[in-house]
Amino acid sequence: MICRRYFVMGQVQGVCYRAGARDKALELGVDGYARNLPDGRVEVLAAGPEDALTDFALWLGSGPPQAVVEAVEREDVAEQPEKGFYIR
User: Fewer CB within 10 Å, N- or C-terminus of the chain?
Assistant: First the structure.
């Protein structure tokens, strides 16, 4: 299982971005969480197989229709989230 942290920048708060990320993660079998950060970014921790994370990262780059994603930063991490995908 691979685990990655993403930082999503743009108009991504107040547009159902975290709920959309949760729905997509559950569809793909990805565990983790999405949370708003004080600086306007959304932090996403995601763990799963490589192919699921690739598909999930593609979704993160566009988000729900109301979002305007300007950039997504990614880093590999060693931590493993609890099972399921949660909005924090």
Answer: C
Q: Which of 49, 34, 17 is nearest to 85 (CA)?
A: 34
Predicted model pTM: 0.95
* Residue 5 main-chain phi, psi, to 5 deg: -110, 135
- pLDDT tens-digit series, residues 20-35: 999 999 999 999 999 9
- Select from 5, 1, 8, 3 the least CA-distant residue to 75: 5
Residues known to be catalytic: 18, 36
Single-letter amino acid code for the residue at 19:
A
- 28-85 pLDDT per residue, tens: 999 999 999 999 999 999 999 999 999 999 999 999 999 999 999 999 999 889 999 9
